[in-house]
Design goal:
The chain has about 230 residues and is of the alpha/beta class. About 35% of the residues lie in helices and about 20% in strands. Helix 1 (about 45-60) crosses helix 6 and helix 4 crosses helix 5 (about 175-180).
């Protein structure tokens, strides 16, 4: 049996009230169980992309469809990252859940900030907005110091709030920057549980210097989800 691995387009809501086509990677056999996967934000999305796809492959083998949508300004999207907002991404994630008929959701790291309400599922090693920003601001402080034009955290944050700022190669607009400063992971009602990375074992992939893959971690996470979704299949 071949794997129904494909890229499709889906209608994502835009800030002007219209929709725009964005891409999504799907494993689709038209099964009852369907998982919406919300990836990490910024550089962690790059580092964990292959790992997420391998988890989706394992879920396909276990009888579960899954979808990994692009949100505006992310991955293959043609929208400008600097124009995006957290609320816009949340609306996009909710629209993707509805469009693809998701029965469950898996958020990864900062993706937990975008998890739609009303779906059961999992937050894997969730990360809030302030922690995301701190790491990116720290990287800019190091790079500007090495370039001989040091900046303070206070200067970077002030620029981010007023006009937006480049952080670790990512163009963060002022609205997104300001919202991330206080963004918290939504409450885990509606059957959402947290998966600590320690339960999977091994060093987290987001701490590695380059994108990587860990089969044992993918096996463990996919097995946790598969067992919990057994009654849906």
């Amino acid at each position: 049996m071949t794997t129904p691995f494909q890229f499709v387009e889906w209608p994502c809501p835009a800030a002007d009230g219209e929709t725009r086509s964005e891409a999504a990677l799907v494993f689709n056999r038209a099964r009852e169980a369907r998982l919406l996967v919300i990836p990490p934000l910024f550089e962690e999305a790059n580092k964990l992309r292959r790992q997420i796809v391998e988890i989706m492959r394992r879920l396909d083998d276990a009888g579960i469809d899954s979808v990994l949508p692009d949100l505006p300004g992310c991955n293959e999207s043609r929208a400008l990252l600097a124009q995006q907002t957290l609320e816009g991404w949340r609306a996009g994630a909710a629209a993707a859940a509805e469009h693809f008929g998701a029965t469950h959701v898996l958020s990864v790291r900062g993706g937990a900030l975008l998890r739609p309400a009303g779906l059961p599922g999992w937050d894997y090693a969730p990360q809030d907005g302030p922690k995301i920003l701190r790491a990116m601001v720290r990287a800019r402080i190091i790079s500007t110091k090495e370039a001989g034009a040091p900046e303070t955290r206070e200067e970077i944050e002030a620029t981010g709030r007023s006009e937006g700022v480049q952080l670790a190669g990512w163009s963060i607009g002022p609205a997104l920057f300001a919202t991330l400063e206080s963004a918290e992971v939504p409450a885990r009602g509606d059957g959402v549980t947290m998966i600590d990375h320690e339960t999977l074992g091994g060093r987290p992939l987001w701490l590695r210097a380059e994108p990587d893959f860990d089969a044992a971690q993918a096996d463990a996470l996919a097995a946790t989800i598969s067992v919990a979704m057994r009654d849906v299949r």
